[in-house]
Input
Amino acid sequence: MVPLSWYILLSAVMFCIGIFGFLARRNLIIIFISIELMLNSVNISLVAFSHYLQSLRGQVLVFFIITVAAAEAAIGLAILIAYYKNNPTIKVDEINLLKG
Amino acid sequence: MLKYILIPLLPFASFLINILLGRNFIKDRAHWIAVPAVFGSFVLAVSAFLEVMNGNTININVYSWIASGDFTVSVGFLIDQLSAVMLMVVTSIGTLIFIYSIGYMHGDGGYYRFFAYLSLFVFSMLILVMANNFLLLYFGWEAVGLCSYFLIGYWFHKKSAADAGKKAFIVNRFGDFGFGLGVILIFLTFGSLEYLQVFGGAGAAMGQTISLFGYEVDLLTLICLLLFCGAVGKSAQIPLHVWLPDAMEGPTPVSALIHAATMVTAGVFMVARCNPLFNLSEVAMNTVAVTGGVTAIFAATIALVQNDIKRVIAYSTVSQLGYMFLALGVGAYSAGIFHLYTHAYFKALLFLGSGSVIHALHDVQDMRNMGGLKKHMPVTYAVFIIATLSITGIPGLAGFFSKDEILWRTYLAGDLGKLLWFLGTTAALLTAFYSWRLIYMTFHGKFRGTHEQEHHLHESPKVITVPLMLLAVGAVAAGWVGIPPVIMEHGDRIGEFLAPVLGHPEGHGTHAEEYMVMGASIFVALLGWFVAHRMYVKTPELPRKLGASLQPVYNLLLNKYYVDELYSKTLVQPVLRAADRIILGFDTYVIEGIVNGVPGLIGAFSRKLREVQTGMLSNYALVMALGALCIVGIWIFLR
Output
């Protein structure tokens, strides 16, 4: 039986990788993947706690998160493609039209 | 009684309707509102006049205007003998001028605007005349000035007209400043602004003095001089006469209205109205008389050489107003008002007649380009002759009776009076000369304009000539109510009518003297006519030779004694220069500093703040992450 703390640790590590990718990478798709990584790290901890507490509430929440993440990914990628058609780049430091 | 409130309110309603609806709805039908309104005022004025004839003077307070402690002012109307005569003059002349304007202003782009301002002008004058207290009088006084500004500058796209409007307004301001001080001083002295209380308390105020710049000044004299200051401005006496000739820039019906019915007569009316005050101050009376006498001859000499047809008549008005003040100054108030009343008819006639000429010539005003219009415009010529006979004082016509009455009363007023009589008679000689000069240059001889103009010469339409004919009747018959008693027993009906308000003039002379004065004025009238005929009909080259040999005098007169230039040098330009300096110093650095500085500061701050929005996604992400960290930190450590 794997103890709870390992799941939590895995979740924390995944979240930190996500944050690092989100902040440090310049490729928009990588950033996107990093966001998904963060979401899924949260999912892991939710499922782990759900199992630990013998309550299904956490897992229900996970389903919602997966649904929302799917929708979000669809919209995000759509925006990305639409932008790419006008402006063939996905480097975030070149996408800076909206500035003061 | 209350129906007489409608006398001023009808023109005011016409003003409101025309100004609000004129542009979009009424347009060229503006006269259908204005003319009935002013005619309605005329009908009511006649009814008020008859009421006063029956001995009922009307004094009603309609509305409590200002009530502050002891200071109460009502909107109230006083219709006595004096205001009744003025009402008749204003509304009758006003009606005819309104009708005339239908023809004269036909097709003008601002037709509705013209009638709106004209109505407002008449309204203001009627308020001025009917007021029963000084504040309402002051209201009318200022409103008249405002309307004159609107109407003189009516063709505002023409710079000279806009300037003339400004000039009239600003010059009047000088006089009105004194008038305003006078009204304030009246309140301080009498504690009221109602005519009845002020005039009732005038005797008690006699002999009081007030300390002014360390001198003890007689209070009543000071009040009278301040009031007269306003009259000098409004009635264009020396030294504030400069605006009136420039007012010729307005459309001709406006000139007629200003000169005959409204505006310039206000000063004469006001001094006559305040006669209980003026009677108590000999200094003020002499000032009035001397100003009038000097203005009469001063303006007449300028009129001798002017070439603009309307300017000649304008200076003639200044001169005739001088006569009126001369009469007021020697205590012959009713003679002054009588002359105001006859003058209104023949001067309106002269102006509207000259308007008819200008209309026929398509806006030519220079008499050197006229001549020979007699056969083209018989009606205008005929009424011009009548007006000229009247103004020069040919026996039997209106001008003779009133002018003779003034000269006779002046003659009786002591040694100063004799001198002023001499000035007045000389001015009458000049009046005769320049009036006939105008006739001969305009209507006689050969036409001196272009051939095309001659081809288009025509008599004016009925809507113009009918008012002229009606005014001509007035110019002949208006004087018959004031026939001197020496010719006809009880002939001076207007003098007797006005006596309850204006009193009986003092001084008695023998019949022989009166006939001498009369004979002198008839003689100078004929002499002026004869000289003008000699110079402009018999030997047309004589005026030019005379002008050349008397070059300095001629130039002095042609340039109106350089009064305008004097004001320009001493007043206008220094003020403009000072204003320039103020604009450069105070305005540029202080006012504009504040006005531009505050937005500039906000702008600079915003520009800095804007830089937060870098457009770099990673920056936003970092801020978000730090924000999340902070929230978590706060949640953990501060819980």
